[in-house]
Design brief:
Number of strands: 7
Radius of gyration: 19 Å
Strand order of the largest sheet: 2-1-3-4-7
Strand content: 5-15%
Distance between the termini: 34 Å
Oligomer: single chain
Order of helices and strands: HHHHHEHEHEEEEHEH
Mean pLDDT: 96
Low-confidence stretches: none
Bound molecules: nicotinamide-adenine-dinucleotide
Helix content: 25-40%
Largest sheet: 5 strands, parallel
């Protein structure tokens, strides 16, 4: 809900027309397919975002594959992913794209650096690891992808010049897992109970920020870091979808 609301708000702020199509959790796959086909055929629509996860009666892969690749501003369609892997121009999934833009903006040196990506999901870890290993700037990193079955995660992280933490476990990356001067990018967003907040909860990243930050050359906060860049990158993709047509 938070992510969807900020997409709608950002579109409004920058002058994009956006429509939120809210569907019942009991929707059938056929109904969702029909809705996407309508949007595919609507010349007024440049980008289509299907908010994941979908209810269990829906085949997520089928739905993602149905979005026209020209309108796939989330970059999850197999055609977009294939192009990304080959280093061809395409829609890059918003979170890793936002991180690449951030690395570029702060002129972070990446060539020859060891980047450790924690998490291998299709929306964050996997595309992040591909982008960081590409022969581009930012890129040219030696990349290690870590996941739930990785042994010696601490030892691997201690060798990292750049760590992207995207596993969804609040405060997971501790100071004793990070070497001096490392760049730490925190993707995690988890709602945790917090009695000191009016809402009763706080948003926590995957990094133990207070203890890790003193060791870092750069570190992103949560909230206010990767999340904002994700929205920005999504808007870039949508802008490109609207303007780079034949
Ligand atoms: P996911 O659950 O699909 O994937 C988590 C990954 O972490 C898996 O590949 C798993 O193997 C790995 N993992 C789990 N436990 C681990 C452990 N103990 N050690 C090493 N690896 C482990 O999650 P996701 O969709 O990739 O999202 C990850 C986090 O990033 C979540 O907190 C999510 O809310 C957040 N997120 C933030 C943004 C943003 O804009 N900031 C965007 C997308 C996701």
């Amino acid at each position: 809900e938070t992510y969807v609301a900020s997409k709608v708000k950002t579109c409004e702020a920058i002058g994009f027309k956006s429509t939120m199509v809210r569907m019942e959790e009991t929707i059938t796959e056929a109904e969702l397919v029909a809705a996407i086909e309508n949007l595919n055929n609507d010349a007024d629509v440049d980008g289509i975002l299907v908010q994941l996860p979908l209810p269990k009666q829906i085949n997520e892969e089928r739905i993602i594959s149905l979005i026209h690749p020209d309108k796939d501003v989330d970059g999850f369609h197999p055609v977009s992913v294939g192009k990304l892997v080959q280093g061809l121009p395409t829609f890059i999934p918003a979170t890793p794209y936002g991180i690449m833009l951030m690395l570029e903006h702060y002129k972070i040196e990446t060539s020859g650096k060891h980047a450790v990506v924690i998490g291998r999901s299709n929306i964050v870890g996997r595309p992040m690891s591909i982008l960081l290993s590409q022969n581009t700037y930012p890129g040219n990193c030696t990349v290690t992808v870590c996941h739930s079955r990785t042994n010696n995660l601490k030892e691997i992280c201690l060798q990292a010049d750049i760590i992207v933490a995207a596993l969804g476990k609040p405060g997971f990356l501790k100071a004793d897992m990070v070497k001096e001067g490392a760049v730490v990018i925190d993707v995690g967003i988890t709602r945790v109970e917090d009695a000191t907040k009016k809402s009763g909860f706080a948003i926590k990243g995957d990094v133990d920020f207070d203890n890790v930050a003193p060791k870092c050359s750069y570190i992103t906060p949560v909230p206010g870091g990767v999340g904002l860049m994700t929205i920005g990158a999504l808007m870039m993709n949508t802008y490109n979808a609207a303007t780079k047509k034949d």
